[in-house]
Design a protein that fits this description.
The chain folds into two domains: 2-40, no CATH class; 54-263, no CATH class. It is 76% helix and 0% strand. The chain has helices at 2-11, 15-25, 32-40, 54-78, 82-102, 107-131, 135-155, 163-187, 201-231, 238-263. Helix 4 packs across helix 6. The longest helix has 31 residues, at 201-231. The radius of gyration is 28 Å and the shape is globular.
């Protein structure tokens, strides 16, 4: 009977019983307590967490942009007004800062950010289109061309994303934000601020530089995605990539919209 039991154990497909069988071949039979301990161990290791792929980023990116476009279309139709747009910008800014500085990747927060940002973008776009009919389509087309061009530049390695390149782009982005903040503060005391948002050479130059910096930030986003896939980061990190791409594309779109408004006759 004991021989049959050992033969059955050795032929078992269960890893625990196979281990017992190997010990039996060496002339050692575990005690009942040891056998129970082996049996209590898991028969297999838990599956590893799925890693991020390019498809994950594409799906999450389209979801984020889809929500932004949907809420933007609603805001466009309802023409909610600049008061609602300002509140939406502040809410989106708060969520964006939290996601940026916390380093967290959250689908619900990313989609909420896109929803509020979409309300602001839709309202602003409606205002500009009333002033210059067709300007919104031109800005959308320009943003799409900028995205395609930078993707090609990055894919062909025409410009390589190096640590030095990253530092320069981030520094330029911070400088632009600082100038816009100064312009906002100075604008409380006069009508033109420091002139970077007015019609004329300074306003045009600032918008062109802002668009270029936004395009370079797209390259940083592409590099982040590629490195994340290569490093095997968790699949949920795709939401962080979607957030980055959405923010950059809206930045480029709004700057192109403003530049086109200046070139077509003025800027309110």
């Amino acid at each position: 009977m004991k021989v049959r039991l050992l033969e059955a154990v050795m032929e078992s497909r269960n890893p625990v019983f196979r281990k017992v069988g190997e010990q039996a071949r060496m002339g050692y039979t575990p005690s009942p307590a040891e056998l129970q301990g082996m049996y209590d161990q898991p028969a297999y290791a838990p599956p590893a967490e799925r890693t991020m792929t390019i498809d994950d980023v594409v799906v999450k990116g389209f979801a984020s942009l889809g929500v932004l476009v949907a809420t933007g279309a609603v805001a466009w139709v309802l023409n909610l007004g600049m008061g609602i747009a300002l509140i939406s910008v502040l809410v989106a800014l708060g969520i964006g800062l939290y996601l940026s500085f916390s380093g967290k990747s959250s689908g619900p927060l990313t989609l909420t950010y896109s929803a509020f940002y979409g309300i602001a973008v839709g309202t602003i776009s409606h205002l500009y289109n009333n002033l210059y009919n067709g300007i919104v389509f031109q800005a959308i087309l320009g943003t799409a061309l900028a995205f395609a061009a930078m993707l090609a530049v990055y894919s062909l390695r025409i410009i390589r994303v190096t640590p030095k390149f990253t530092r320069y782009v981030v520094a330029a982005g911070v400088a632009l934000m600082a100038l816009m903040l100064v312009n906002l503060v100075v604008g409380m005391f006069n009508d033109t601020g420091i002139g970077i948002r007015e019609n004329g050479p300074i306003g045009i130059a600032f918008s062109v530089i802002a668009i270029l910096v936004g395009c370079f930030f797209l390259m940083l986003d592409f590099d982040m995605i590629e490195r994340g896939v290569q490093a095997g980061v968790p699949a949920k990190f795709a939401w962080a990539c979607a957030f980055a791409l959405t923010s950059t594309l809206v930045w480029i779109y709004l700057e192109i919209l403003r530049l086109l408004a200046i070139l077509q006759g003025g800027d309110d």
